[in-house]
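Review this today:
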Amino acid sequence: MPRLALLFVLILLAPAVQAAQMWDKMAFDAAQAAGSPILVHVTAPWCPTCKAQKPTVDKLESSNPALKVFAVDFDSQKDALAYLGVKSQSTLISYRGKMEIGRSTAVTDPAAITELVVRASH
């Protein structure tokens, strides 16, 4: 029975391990200073476009350990929106270190989202 309980806990925690980090300015600055490829996903729980983007963002994050993904809540993190110059939910921004590489809004095509990350990774 303890093995079954452990397996259950691991299954419950698995999505959290791969989930994007919530916006934190200090962590974002550290990722930029390290020269990491970064993807910022501005999202809202009520946004169907954001929900359509999420599987692609999650897949990119899990397949690229160097990629730092930050989720910004459109409704509650207005300071981050101002800092990033974002006006709409479903915005994706890629960075290579401190340089913004690309930005898109309301794009759900996996190839287009992947291209943002590929450009930031090279």
Summary: DSSP finds five helices and five strands in the chain. The longest helix spans residues 2-18. Helices lie at 2-18, 25-33, 48-63, 78-84, 110-121.
